[in-house]
């Protein structure tokens, strides 16, 4: 069968790869499996139930879940096959953003996973005139449960109506509106059609390798990134297409346990998570004491000297692999075929290290507006430090100012109710402007150097690309977050959030008293001196005009809740600068 619309994928999976555990979610400590057939049956009930409620093709329904779960998948299929436009929303955004999105998209119904989200929506419900009802997946007293819709659709005599609507849906019809949390301003509704996402799924399939020796029935994926994010969602369809079982992780906190339970073959990650996994490995290895600690550092030293990716060769590497790196792999369940990384730049140093430890990472690049994959590395065609070769069905063009632009079937239709902004992001010959600066090397690999918007000029007229410097700095154990600033100033400086936990253990090892709270730690002169050493090391790799001349430590953790990071953990630069404006002013008060 040919796949033209999102809801064709589960039917293709049923025909080609029927399985007992298409989706698996943990409820009250037990993993509950849903088969391919059950998945389709339940989605049909949702479709029939919604039609009974008077829902029509083109209506908008919001889906919000704290952690991905099978109910989300059932809702997604139930909506898409009757032409309803799904509006998945980040759980972590503010009630004000909920109100804006719901009103802007004219949401009719909303489905939430739990009590906290239910309360959050209830707070603003009275301001949203289109909203007719809220349903929840969990049982919440006083809230309508999603099972009411399933019960409404129990009678399958109206299934013909569902099928008629499905048959009438064109691949060019709108499938979803995804609101991207801009690092500035109000969220923008990105309109994606069935064709946009399906073409990206089909274009990405050759890049995410299947293991020939592994039967689809035994292939497992652990999914824990927010499914409202197009990166995880596109992979969610790609894994269905391949007949892989998708296990939904309980939460980022429970990742360790879930990995042991599931022993996944595939996982998608963001660089921040790879950094956290490495920090955990490092903390364990460096505090092992005695011979174990010596072996850990010896193996680490060996692997860090490798400048290319290769299997262990020679006695030393084979011993290091057996004693140390095998444990790293076991920590990720022991069966990983590959991690797929997106959403931000992955440090070349970490990427190389993981690849050589036998944990392959395929790094890719894309935006919500491009459904999302523009390019991705794959086995046999990989270059560390790049985001891989562009997909075969896309055309990538570097503009005169270095901006990456792209054309092809997965490029979005425009921003919902915002023609002006839509016009701004396309070139005259129809290429979408990504807002990223990069180049294509002689082998065709795409390299990202910075966000166009984030580059700034010092008062001396020199351009600074902050992300490049920040990625170098985040390799330091002492630095959890860093933001390079200095637009229009004499020199670049940095606001740094130290890794408070690491700083405490470092202080203990060195018998230093740097305090216990983030406020006290940020005031510590010893810590500041130590971080200065790290900054000096980084400066050696930078041009004179790019070097960080001063920095200040911030007295709190930068988090999503504090409004300093976006839901995908990118820096909200304006908010961070405003929050720590005193520290910023302090750095620029005494220009040399």
TrEMBL record:
One of its GO terms (molecular function) is ATP binding. Transmembrane segments: none annotated. Gene3D superfamilies: N-terminal domain of ligase-like. It comes from the Bacteria. Residues 15-416 form the AMP-dependent synthetase/ligase domain. CDD domains: VL_LC_FACS_like. PANTHER family: AMP-BINDING DOMAIN-CONTAINING PROTEIN-RELATED, LONG-CHAIN-FATTY-ACID--COA LIGASE. This is Long-chain acyl-CoA synthetase.
């Amino acid at each position: 069968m040919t796949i033209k619309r999102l809801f064709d994928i589960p039917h293709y999976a049923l025909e080609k790869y029927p399985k007992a555990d298409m989706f698996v979610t943990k409820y009250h400590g037990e993993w509950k499996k849903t088969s391919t057939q059950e998945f389709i049956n339940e989605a049909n009930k949702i479709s029939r139930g919604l039609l009974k409620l008077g829902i029509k093709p083109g209506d908008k329904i919001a889906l919000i879940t704290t952690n991905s779960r099978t109910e989300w998948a059932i809702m997604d299929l139930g909506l898409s096959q009757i032409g309803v436009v799904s509006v998945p929303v980040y759980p972590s955004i503010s009630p004000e953003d909920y109100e804006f999105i719901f009103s802007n998209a004219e949401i009719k119904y909303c489905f939430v996973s739990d009590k906290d989200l239910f309360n959050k929506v209830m707070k603003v419900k009275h301001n949203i005139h289109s909203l007719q009802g809220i349903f929840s997946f969990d049982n919440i007293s006083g809230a309508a449960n999603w099972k009411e819709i399933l019960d409404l659709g129990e009678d399958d005599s109206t299934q013909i109506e569902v099928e008629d609507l499905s048959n009438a849906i064109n691949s060019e019809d709108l499938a979803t509106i995804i609101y991207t949390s801009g690092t500035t301003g109000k969220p923008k509704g990105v309109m994606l059609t069935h064709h946009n996402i399906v073409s990206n799924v089909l274009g990405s399939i050759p890049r995410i390798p299947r293991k020939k020796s592994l039967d689809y029935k035994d292939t497992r994926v652990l999914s824990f990134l927010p499914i409202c994010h197009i990166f995880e969602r596109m992979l969610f369809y790609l894994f269905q297409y391949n007949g892989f079982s998708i296990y939904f992780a309980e939460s980022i906190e429970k990742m360790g346990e879930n990995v042991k339970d599931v022993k996944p073959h595939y996982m998608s990650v963001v660089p921040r998570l790879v950094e956290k996994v490495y920090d955990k490995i490092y903390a364990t290895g460096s505090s092992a004491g005695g011979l174990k600690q010596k072996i850990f550092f010896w193996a680490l030293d060996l692997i860090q000297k490798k400048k290319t990716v290769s299997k262990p060769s020679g006695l030393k590497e084979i011993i290091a692999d057996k004693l140390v790196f095998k444990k790293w792999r076991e920590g990720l369940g022991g069966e990983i075929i590959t991690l797929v990384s997106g959403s931000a730049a992955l440090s070349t140093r970490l990427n190389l290290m993981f690849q050589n430890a036998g944990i392959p990472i395929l790094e890719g690049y894309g935006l919500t507006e491009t459904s999302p994959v523009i390019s991705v590395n794959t086995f046999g065609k990989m270059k560390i430090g790049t985001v891989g070769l562009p997909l075969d069905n896309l055309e990538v063009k570097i503009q005169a100012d270095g901006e990456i632009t792209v054309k092809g079937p997965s490029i979005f239709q425009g921003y919902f109710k915002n023609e002006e902004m839509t016009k701004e992001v396309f070139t005259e010959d129809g290429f979408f402007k990504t807002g990223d600066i990069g180049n294509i090397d002689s082998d065709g690999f795409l390299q990202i150097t910075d966000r166009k918007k984030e580059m700034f000029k010092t008062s001396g007229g020199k351009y600074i690309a902050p992300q490049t410097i920040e990625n170098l700095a985040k390799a330091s154990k002492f630095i959890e977050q860093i933001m390079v600033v200095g637009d229009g100033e004499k020199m670049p400086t940095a606001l740094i959030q130290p890794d408070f936990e690491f700083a405490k253990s470092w202080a203990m090892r060195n018998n230093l008293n740097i305090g216990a709270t983030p406020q006290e730690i940020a005031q510590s002169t010893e810590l500041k001196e130590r971080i200065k050493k790290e900054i000096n090391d980084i400066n050696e790799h930078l041009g004179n005009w790019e070097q960080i001349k001063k920095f200040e430590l911030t007295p709190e953790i930068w988090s999503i809740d504090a409004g300093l990071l976006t839901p995908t953990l990118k820096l909200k630069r304006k908010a961070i600068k405003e929050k720590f404006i005193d520290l910023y002013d302090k750095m620029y008060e005494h220009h040399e």
